[in-house]
Amino acid sequence: MQLRLITALFIFVGSCLPLSLILLAQNLDYSRLQQDFCWKIWEEGCSLPLKNPNFALGIFLACVVCFAVTLIALAAVRPKHEIQLTQVKHVPADLMNYTLPYVVSFMSIDYQETGKFVGFLIFLGWMFWITYRSGQVILNPLLIAFGWRLYDISYHFVGDQTEQAGNALVHGHVAAGERHRQIAIQDILVVKANQSTDR
């Protein structure tokens, strides 16, 4: 199954949630935190203790919404094709490696540094295009917190003994010798190990 560009963009923006949270924290005006907090931001003279509140909160909320869409889309996926696993290797570090390096690299970016921020957006644009074209856009390290794991697997389809290999994003745990249903999203197999193969 090939992801549509807009769906892939939602997934990619959702993977930027940690980065948007870092940028939001860097945008806080810590000197204003000592003052009484004003909740009625619609009133004159009341505002959030952020240097660029609309921009910082807008990007953060967009990432939250996109990550929620990613979780909903993965919950809606219905694996169809039954496979027999022959070899299974859990590779937790690989899932982390797909998006976290650029998060650390750009921790010093600030919304108020226009030149750096534009360069950062260009970099993210290239990252999105590369991960989309390589079929890896669905790999989001935040999914680990929701029970997803990345595996290198060898398998064959039930009724066909041709051995195949690939990466599988698995909700739950799998082991060699088990049968599970999968669906390919670009170059990644999505397996829900907690779903019965009898359906």
Automatic annotation (TrEMBL):
The chain crosses the membrane at residues 55-77, 114-132. It comes from the Bacteria. Keywords: Membrane, Transmembrane, Transmembrane helix. This is Uncharacterized protein. It comes from Shinella pollutisoli. The lineage of its organism: Bacteria, Pseudomonadati, Pseudomonadota, Alphaproteobacteria, Hyphomicrobiales.
